[in-house]
Task: structure prediction
Amino acid sequence: MKNKKRPKIVATSVAGALHNHRKMPCQDCFKHTIGKNLVAVVSDGAGSAKLGKIGAKIICSTMCDLLKNANFAKAPEIIRQAIRLSREKLMIHRLNPSKSEEGIADFAATLVGVICRGNKGIFFHIGDGAAIAVRSGYDDFIASRPENGNFACETFFYTQQAWLENLRFTFFEDASRLFLMSDGVANFSFTPDFKEIEQGFVAPIDRFLADAQNKSKAVKALANTLNTPKAQRINSDDKTLVWIKVD
Result:
């Protein structure tokens, strides 16, 4: 990246109340890296997919590996290549006995990520979850919002045959902050209609993390915020939030 200052990144995942109750691990995954580009990715392994966590890990690692030093001008093309490669990895995975495209349904996971170079960035997105690029203030932002199917509980996954038609790109410039999140955090971060940022949630987190000097303490504080009894009551899904101070 050609930024004068290295971006500050704080991120965490916490298991949702439902998974805690069933003694199941968190199915969310996130990863971030900085090369020529800043790249961050969040993936939510589908609760109905027995291998969703593996699908989430593979898309996060593949995206970061292929995008961190990619030609930014060709980012959309390389993002599509990374998804194809992730699907190919799942087709030959040792836990996919069929070694077929049909078998990767067991690895179902969503995708929301960002690639930035200089003052320009691109969100790439399949399914629910969300991403926000805040520019001069919380009323000045670009968002990649959740996308569901015909029913509220139905979303899209990169493992589906129709992944390409469900892949969305959102371009932005001059962001000062970036937020990437799984669906367990999305409804906290927006007003109910998803038109505006929920400043009562986003602003305090942003200010605290921007001022935090100790990264490990900042990660712990963020995890505690996502794991409060109130947060778990409002949304019992796994919760992941990646916060990036770009400027």
Remarks:
- Strands lie at 8-14, 28-34, 38-44, 111-117, 120-126, 130-137, 140-144, 168-173, 177-181, 239-245.
- The chain has a mean pLDDT of 93.
- The two ends are 12 Å apart (CA to CA).
- Residues 205 and 217 are 13 Å apart (CA to CA).
